[in-house]
Design a protein that fits this description.
The structure is a single chain. Helix content is 38%, strand content 20%. It is an alpha/beta fold and 342 residues long. The strands form 3 sheets. Strands 1, 2, 3, 4, 5, 6, 7, 12, 13 and 14 form a 10-stranded mixed beta sheet that branches. Strands 8-9 form a two-stranded antiparallel sheet. It starts with 5 loop residues before the first strand and ends in a 16-residue tail after the last helix.
């Protein structure tokens, strides 16, 4: 295959151990014509010394401060010239032929702006991984879920999702993105810092008429939680704040106001659950997220679509929280396909 100009870009922050563990698979399983770049978010460990000593052929983009996922990738990709960027987490093990099926799919249709492979768990390789599984979706209240993962239910990958298909968002853990679409859309919103910035990007791409897809013909394995563990209240804060932000930014006004009241109720229940289960820091993180949302509300809404009240294509019309916790719909195949906007 004559691969178009493709750059694999790994964003690193104090991840020397991950680079040592997983760079060999990236180098060994990437076509020779694919460039591999490490963008470093001002690490304080010996990541750069390790790279210079062991991988002198890999280009390093050393950033002067930690700009997070969103800002770090924006700063790095500004310096690169390619047809496709592959944004790859440092804690990702790739497999033979991981690039070619995705690029072939994207080359088949210029409207495909972003795509992801199937993401399995590195420590439980028979199962999908939390961050992306087999393609991401969003309910009308801003709650993300995936084919293969709803909340903390991770399905075994038994070939139940074999098809390359349109999805609402593709994971930032291993995100193939068409460079021209990335730049036309304005890249990541650096205000997000980390978490859900890829959903925001994909939603903005969809609003411009682009498609987002998953390609299960490629599989990679993700450790997950390398920068912020799942138990981090900082992660709770970013997830709740950024989820509200992406709704405010991208949802038409009628649909946004129609969803916000119920969303507030769901988040109040989540905060109470954190408190009663002995996680007061996470409860406070939800409150802090709402404070940040209210302070930035006007700015975020100023970028939103002004016309129409409808929901975007492939958004789930129901509440995934309601379906999961009350109706016991634990897997993607249990959801009503007619409840997705077409």
């Amino acid at each position: 295959m004559n691969t178009p100009r493709t750059a694999v870009v790994i964003l690193n922050w104090n991840g020397r151990a991950y680079l040592q563990a997983f760079l060999p698979s990236v180098v060994g399983h990437s076509p020779k014509e694919v460039r591999i770049i490490v963008a470093d978010n001002a690490s304080s460990d010996d990541s750069l010394d390790f790279l210079k000593k062991n991988y002198p052929g890999i280009r390093i983009i050393a950033l002067s401060q930690n700009l997070g996922y969103a800002g770090g990738y924006n700063a790095a990709l500004e310096q690169l010239d390619a047809d496709y960027f592959v944004l790859l987490n440092s804690d990702m093990e790739v497999t033979s032929g991981w690039i070619e099926p995705v690029i072939t799919l994207m080359e088949s249709d210029a409207s495909i702006a972003a795509c992801q492979p199937a993401i399995r768990a590195y420590h439980h390789k028979t199962h999908f991984e939390y961050a992306g599984a087999s393609g991401g979706f969003l309910d009308r209240y801003g709650y993300p879920f995936c084919r293969g993962r709803i909340f903390n239910t991770l399905e075994p990958d038994q070939g139940q999702y074999p098809d390359a298909r349109d999805v609402f968002w593709a994971t930032g853990a291993c995100l193939f993105v068409r460079a021209v679409a990335f730049r036309e859309t304005g890249g990541f919103d650096s205000r997000f810092f980390a978490h859900m910035e890829e959903i925001d990007l994909c939603w903005r791409m969809k609003n411009k008429g682009y498609r987002i897809m998953v390609c299960p013909g490629s599989t990679v394995y993700h450790v997950g939680g390398g920068t912020l563990p799942k138990s981090s209240s900082r992660k709770t804060y970013l997830n709740f704040r950024n989820s509200l932000w992406l709704m405010a930014k991208n949802m038409p006004r009628g649909a946004f106001y129609g969803s916000l009241l119920f969303r507030k109720m769901l988040d109040a229940m989540a905060a109470l659950k954190f408190l009663l289960s002995g996680h007061p820091a996470d409860c406070f993180a939800v409150i802090k997220a709402y404070r940040a949302f209210l302070l930035s509300y006007r700015t975020m809404r100023s970028h939103s679509p002004k016309a129409g009240s409808g929901l975007p294509s492939l958004m789930y019309r129901r509440s995934i929280a309601w379906d999961y916790f009350l109706r016991k719909r634990k897997t993607f195949t249990m959801l009503d396909p007619e409840k997705f906007v077409h």
